[in-house]
Amino acid sequence: MADFIASPATRRLAREKGVEIEALAKKLGRKTIGAEDLDSGAAPASAPSGDTSYWDVDHSQYGDVTEEPMSRFAQVAARNLAAAQALIPAVTHHDRADVSAIEAFRQSLKSEAMARGVKLTALAFHVAALARCLKAFPRFNASLSADGDTLYLKTYVHIGIAVDTPHGLMVPVIRNADRKGLWQIGAEIADLAAKAQARKVKPDEMGGASMTITNLGGIGGTAFTPIVNPPEVAILGITRTETVTVWDGDTPRPVPMVPLDLSYDHRVINGADAARFLAHYAKLIGDPRNMLI
Known about the structure:
alpha+beta, Chloramphenicol Acetyltransferase, seven-stranded mixed beta sheet, 8 helices, 11 strands
């Protein structure tokens, strides 16, 4: 007789996933095994498990269709995103930050930006702020091993920048962002974005990010839930700045606020830490002098 307890439904799911439930119980040191424990005993998947045969539909029976083959690049990205969504218990925390000081500061630097030939976008400030946050909250600058047993804490700070291109989403990386000033970060963002659009990003300019920023501010939206990009444990989403009424005593004041969306792997990060992380991030963004220190 087994020295652990598992419901018939859990046992059936374990068989479907190929998990040896007795070995898993010993590994976890547990007497009771639930369905939520099974992912820790399954081999990492390249795609979510389950029967998708019903997706195979002859769409032409309902009307005219055309076919567009998915590029190899898009196929690889799709498999990675599907696996990430299926295997990572992700949660998204939402907040917003006052960007009035940053916008005023950027305006004051317009002539210097022209002289330098560098477009100092708001994204440069976000990269600088995120780099500082990762130093202050090292658990966010980490990766979890595929078996979920080991957390790798990184001393370097590399920021991935998601770039929308005609051939798919690419994520070039700004290395050692915590050691770089705003002008250098701004120049590297422009350079990497241009290379991504031209499909000229080098292999050493991809991969190894501590965390990724995905910015939809130039397109629109008020919030979204970005998918964590493994082996990272969190991702920061940014949408379009909006004017929010803030009350200063009895006086209403319009304030430009940027919505922030932090998705994180709940196996590594808890909700309170995510809230503290994003509150600290908003504080940094609220005063550009924080990025000059």
